[in-house]
Design goal:
Layout lengths: L7 H18 L18 H11 L10 H12 L13 H15 L9 H7 L4 H5 L10 H11 L7 E2 H16 L6 H15 L6 E2 L1 H7 L18 E3 H16 L5 H14 L7 E3 H13 L7
Antiparallel strand pairs: 1-2, 3-4
Helix pairs in contact: 2-9, 7-11, 8-9
Amino acid sequence: MDATTATPATTAAAAAKRLQIEKAQNFMRQYRDPESRELKKLSANQFMDVWSHYDKDGNGYIEGTELDGFLREFVSSANATDVSPEAVTDTMLAELKSCFMEAYDDNQDGKIDIRELAQLLPMEENFLLLFRFDNPLESSVEFMKIWREYDTDNSGYIEADELKNFLRDLLKEAKKINDVSEDKLIEYTDTMLQVFDANKDGRLQLSEMAKLLPVKENFLCRQVFKDNNGTIENEELRGFLKDLLELVKKDDYDAQDLSQFEETILRGVGYDKDGKISRKELTMILLTLAKMPPEDDQ
């Protein structure tokens, strides 16, 4: 056989090799239509692949050199010719980053989190709804209510089945839909666990669920005593303590940490036995926290 004659097998192998080379050079190119150069609609798993590729250190943000690399590849992949990401000059990159961050960096922290990326990339509608809530949580009070509702076995974790139930209810409420298949729910649950389960134990602890369900305001930025009775109690108290714990423990805490923190803080301020915190006791708690060393120094 003539060595120059291409068979279907060799043609397919060559195409696969070209795709592999292009993917290595520009990861985003594979997600664009080869003719129109428009981004294709991404499945949950494809979106996860994009996120994982650019969040190289796995810290939950695309920032610094990660963000530079993403922007260079995102722009150059739109070109019909095989343009290298390096073709985007530093001057072009600086201008691009400025415009990009103004449009997508909602919390203005100088980096992109997974929700902000979800605004940019076209995805399956139902999966996109998991990142866009019609009624974002106002506070950790609402967060703790949801936590208690879906931690049905009171294990202190949101297990995979509990997370699946939460996602099902969220999609129903967001879109008033009931036709999300069980296979899709399993796929979405697996993807959410891949994204938010930082310690990879197959379930979400308190701090991990807090990243999936962020709240608008920390207690320091809002009126704590909502009912104006001079005390906080019940769900208000749990949400308040969760915010305090987040200030102390930052990114890694679970329900047991919350329980121990509650016991330590409340015992330290002479917490009364009626299950309430007064304004005076709140002041004592904040003063106590102000004197505590940072977690790294403990």
